[in-house]
Amino acid sequence: MGSDALTIIPRSDLTRCFSNCVLTFSHLTDDKKREDLQIKVKRMGGKLKDGLTKKVTHLITLDWTTAKSLYVRKHKLSKVLMEPKWIDAVYNQSGSEILPATHPSFQRFRLPLFQGFTICFSMVPLEKRSLIKQKVERNGGKYAGDFNPSVVTHLVVMAPEGKKYDLSLKYASIKKVSFHWFLDSIQQGVPLMEEDYPPKNYELSESLQNQSKRKSGDMFPNMGDFVSKKAKLNIFNNKQNKKTDTRISLQKQDADVSLAEQKADEFESILKDLGNRQVERPNQALLKPRPNQSQNEKKPQGMLSLTMTKSSQSSEISVSLPVLWEGSSA
């Protein structure tokens, strides 16, 4: 048997349509309409909550600008945002069979991606604006060719410069985002948080790497075509500056390595001038036994006797030290 979303419910059992759903409403100003929808949900077995609790499965709202919608976006909650007409569509089903509210046929009532947004673009080539406009409107948003501060909610920029961008800085209510916000939101199917996409130069290589992750229907035919000549020039200059910084960094690393090698050579010369100059022959013993030591004299294995003489005394002090290297005495 399939999942609940695919189960066919008999006509006589209409009350089960919302049996697995917990709904909350956001920003429905028409009190009469909201009350009517709530009654229908209860008749079809659904539950209602005033707040956005953990048990809530669906949020009924008109756009993405409401407080509850913003909370879902910010905290990436697994809530499904639906338009109010979803409830009417489930309630008004006709035919011999009744489908549950979560059936795929009702997915067309999900809240569109850019619902409630009026989006303006800066530094986009003229020949590509029609495709941009189509993408915005297909996903429920409004496209603004001209920058009107009283209407525009989002300004999408190819680079943080230009007349539109400079003017938008005077209006804190307008969201200024990079072009990646637009592309990634389409890919994710949800408007991502604007503060995560501050205005910056459009990185062509980064978008090309992400193309394989996007659905084919959501990909633009040629990402480079969306960047104006001025934006491309800015990107090129930034790349050149990065290359210059990289060359300077590499030159500094080479100088550090050369200095380290020079210090190592000096250190090796110092070592060769010390002691018995045995640095290059580590297998030869550096410590010698006493000349008058008897061959039959027993001493602990692995130990070597040395003679130490104090300047103020003639007596000898015999000590034993571990053998540092194996080898014959000189």
TrEMBL record:
<dbReference type="GO" id="GO:0007095">
    <property type="term" value="P:mitotic G2 DNA damage checkpoint signaling"/>
</dbReference>
<protein>
    <recommendedName>
        <fullName>BRCT domain-containing protein</fullName>
    </recommendedName>
</protein>
<feature type="region of interest" description="Disordered">
    <location>
        <begin position="278"/>
        <end position="317"/>
    </location>
</feature>
<feature type="domain" description="BRCT">
    <location>
        <begin position="109"/>
        <end position="199"/>
    </location>
</feature>
<keyword id="KW-0677">Repeat</keyword>
<dbReference type="GO" id="GO:0033314">
    <property type="term" value="P:mitotic DNA replication checkpoint signaling"/>
</dbReference>
<dbReference type="InterPro" id="IPR001357">
    <property type="entry name" value="BRCT_dom"/>
</dbReference>
<feature type="compositionally biased region" description="Polar residues">
    <location>
        <begin position="304"/>
        <end position="317"/>
    </location>
</feature>
<dbReference type="Pfam" id="PF12738">
    <property type="entry name" value="PTCB-BRCT"/>
</dbReference>
<dbReference type="GO" id="GO:0006270">
    <property type="term" value="P:DNA replication initiation"/>
</dbReference>
<feature type="domain" description="BRCT">
    <location>
        <begin position="13"/>
        <end position="87"/>
    </location>
</feature>
<dbReference type="InterPro" id="IPR059215">
    <property type="entry name" value="BRCT2_TopBP1-like"/>
</dbReference>
<dbReference type="InterPro" id="IPR036420">
    <property type="entry name" value="BRCT_dom_sf"/>
</dbReference>
